Structures are given as C-alpha cells and as structure tokens.
Amino acid sequence: MPSRLFLENFLQHAESSGEQAALYWNGSDFTYREIARRARRAAAEIERLGGDRAAPVCVLAKKSPETLALVIGCWLAGRSVLLPSPELGTSVLEQLLATAGCRHVLVPEGEPGSVSVRTVEPRKDVTPHTARSDTLLMLTTSGSTGVPKIVPLDPDGVQRFLAWACDRFDIGAGTTVLSFAPLNFDLSLLDVWATLYAGGCVALVDPERAADGHHLAEVLEAGRVDVVQAVPVFYRLLRDAVPFGCSFPARHVILTGDATSPRLLAELPALFPKARVYNVYGCTETNDSFLHEVDSFELAPGERLPIGRPIAGVEALLLDEEGRPVEGAGTGELVVRTPFQAAGYLDARLDVGRFVPGPDGSTYYRTGDVVRRTADGVYVLEGRNDYHVKVRGVRTNLQEVEHVLQLHPQVLEVAVVAMPDEVFGNLLHAKVRRSPNSGLNSLHLRRYCSAHLPKSAIPSSVEITDQPLPKTSTGKVDRNAVKAALVKGR
Question: Which listed site, 66, 75, 359, 458, has its alpha carbon 20 to 30 Å from 466?
C-alpha cells in the first residue's frame, strides 16, 4: 500500500485524534497516539539494521497491538514487509525468506515498540526475486505444498480496495471493525488496514482465543463492533456459545472464505438483527471480486448461497473445459480481472497458467473455481476444478499434501481426502501405507507435517496401514474408495 497515503492518514489520525481508540484488545483500548509512538520506536530500531534498505523484512508474529505497531514501524522505516503465517514449518519459511531476499526476521519483544531481530544468511541454491520498489506488503497463498507463492500487493490496487471497502461498508472515524482472521490473511486488508486508514477502531480477536465462542461474544459486546467479516466457523462458534435470544448490534455482517450451511444462514438474523448481511468472494491474488447482499436466509435443499455479482470495475469470464468462453447462463472456470489485483507472483515463473491475457489484452486471473452463472447474471460457486478444498477458510490442494507426505522416506503410498465438517468446512484425513518394519506411526507423521505444511493443510487424522491402498482400474490410488471406507467406518 502506498506509504504516503496510508501512513499520512494514520499519522494524521494520531495527531488530530490521538486519544481516539485505534485498537481494542482483550478488554483494553489502544489509542492512535500510543500505536504511533510504538511504531516510531520500532522504526528507529529497524533503521539501525543496516544492509540493503531496499530489501524486505519479514514480520513473523501472531496478531496483536505490538505486531501491528511493528508492521507500521517497518513502513515508517521505508521497508517492504513479508507477512507469512507464523505457524509455517521451518523449511517452508526458510524457502520464503530466500525467495523474497529477506535478511531479517522481526518479532515484537520486551517493551512496547521493541523489536527482536534474527538475521538470515542468504542461500546459494535460491535466487531471490524483487518486487516493485513501492510495494510495502507481501502476502502468501495457502501453500499446500509447503512452499506458498508470494503475492506482492499492488500499491495502487490496495489503495483502490481501501477506498472501496470504506465506502461500501460505511467505515470511518468512530466505526469499529472486528478482526477475526490472522493478520497474514488478505481479509485483514479490510478488517485492519482499511479501518486504520479511515480512522476507525479495530477490535482484535486474540489468536490464542479464536476458538472460544465466549471470547468472540465478549469482543463483539465490549468492542461495540459495527462491522463483522469472518469465515462461517466464527459465526458457528458464536452461535453455540451465546444463549438463545442474545444478539449483537453490528450494522454490516460479511461472510467469506467457505460455503455457509443453511442452518447457520438461518440463524444469522437472530444474532445480528440490525445488520445487512453479505457474502463476498475473492482470492489473495485478486482481493474481493464478487459481492452478494443476502435477501433470503432460507436455502432450498441443495441450494448454495450465491457469491453474487461482480463488484464495480471487475470483469468476469467463465471458461468451459476447452477454454472457450461460456455465454449467458452456464457453468465454467471463473476468470477475473479486478481493480485490486496483484500484477503477478513475486516469482514471475509461477504466473504461467494463472495470470493470463484476457480478451481485452489486460491481465486476468484464473481462479480454478467452478462457478455457475444464472440466467439473471448471479454467480454461484460450485467447487474446484481440481483437488482444491477449503479447510478453515484456507484453500488447500489434496494432491500437494499427498506429495509432501510421499516425500517421507518411510511412506510407500498415501491418499488424502477431505471430509465435510459443519464447523471448519472440511477436515483432512490421510491414509498412509508405511514401509515394512519401519515402525512409522501417526504421531511421527504429524510432527513431520508440522515441519513441512501450514497448519490448515495438516491432516486432522492419520491412518497407518501395512496393506496396499485400494486402486482404480488404471492402477492409481483410489481416493473415492478411501473416502467411502472412512464414511462407512464412522
């Protein structure tokens, strides 16, 4: 995001409305003046790092007031920030740091505004890639392979998104917006950065208590939240925690990330009786691209909640299996161009097949999602055209998880399947055939997965066997048979 715009606005809020709350966190307010003070202290420490000032730094910490101040401090010091998940395995993180050319990993520590710095030695086997000079934030894709793609956010695109989000959801001075998603998720562009840009207050959910529905209710009540954006699991946890008849005064409620069950959708009006409710769709590479304001909270059997229509400025195409455009009503892979999208991945070699030329000559993004367009132009997400599924709101590729498991020297065969789960969308199950006399067990494999996969891609259950896995007629592992046996055994 352009430093002169976001930072000028943020510092102006700290100067003119310094005692206004910028953050709400575990029962306490943190003012704009306090967060600015911490950010300036962090910036002073970052400026003393030396080395190439154009090189990005990595902020590796869970969401907190200290982490937000550190990120802003990096921008004050003129540094681009790589913001990966703090739960990545060591080998995956090292690959990301080398790809981005990061020499320093920063973590808030000690007194407010203080920074712990770890220096990273460059790797000779990885060629670093450089983002455009005014890029200040780089996010990563879900990285089911254990090596996520780095997405440098286009500064102009982010600025357009901040303006759109503030206008569409009435975010301004005095508005409180809930931040449930991890800071490294693209959802934080609205929850955190758009809110601070507009002079509002961010009500932070403590990552350590994100699965506690009572904590979520406490934040909504004590934080006086006006805008809520979260994946369906948030609303499910909240509904299960609060007594019947309890409601919250939010004005806007946004669903995102996963399919919403009919039961959960029907319960939202009671939870948020004053709110307009939306379903949004987007990718890290494009940010939000579709919006649907919910006008009926009852879904017929088999009916899906639409993702709606393209946001103003978004161009959308559907391509059939032959890559030909689908005209009118029909189903195909969704290909989009948005005012907010990245120009490509940090490693441009990964753009092939994803960032593609469109009919007007501009760059479009192939989402890999299968979408149905109705006769009246409403879009409905049907699923993936490959082995991608959503786990806890994170897109995860089953084949790539299998690939990581297959690299273990004591694994002969593996099948990973997704089992539907009302709370988390899907949970992964792995069935593994081990080498004879290896002694491999599920605990060992889970530790292996923790080092090589992001948290969302780690199978929730692992079944070890000494027998060959079921095969299809062509000799390939039959995932459908594995899944059917798992369903039957439950």
Answer: 458
